[in-house]
Here is the input.
Amino acid sequence: MDLKYILCDEASKDKINIKGELHKYLVKVRRHNVGDELDLRAKNDLSMLHSYKISSIDPKSLELSLLSSRMLEVKSEKYLHVAWCVIDLKSIEKVLPMLNELGVSRVTFVYCERSQRNIKLDFARFERILEASMQQCGRSSMMDLDECKSIKEFLHEFDDVVVFDFCQHSLGSDANFKRVLVGCEGGFSKSEREMLGSKKSFRLETPMVLRSESAVVAICSKILL
Here is the structure.
């Protein structure tokens, strides 16, 4: 997939010299030539889009010359905070780019009673995955990521959460809530359901049983798109 922009700490400078893996990608993979234009963003100011022209190319580097800079934010019009009970790391890593592309604002990984306690979340790796996704989809804001030790602790901080669970009420096309809790494989325990008893809940209109990662993508798609 073509990159919508390139993350570069030097973006905004008049001249940039590109070396290493990015040089190989742009020249050998993307086949860019002198005169081609590229868009860059800097991590410390993602709202600004800087347009550059390739002014020279040699075997180990290429030089970019700044053409223009403008503020251009690309993000969802809606805010959605997903509290996602911790599941297998590989499944999380597979789904994170999808949530990023959909425009999810924040993901809090919650350790529920049925989560595997030996799973250690690698937020540095998650950030690298999100950066790659942002460059591909064009999003100009980093998704916020954090973790919570239990559902009880999460509810103490966020009492407005809506719960995805087995119930009578199905998620309508007009759903417009800001925060949703999605369980792990097997759903919530009896004690957790008691804690969540006073919260609004919903199900998806399907006769199939969804895996946690399928459910979170389906829910976010229906709310944000």
Notes: The radius of gyration is 21 Å.
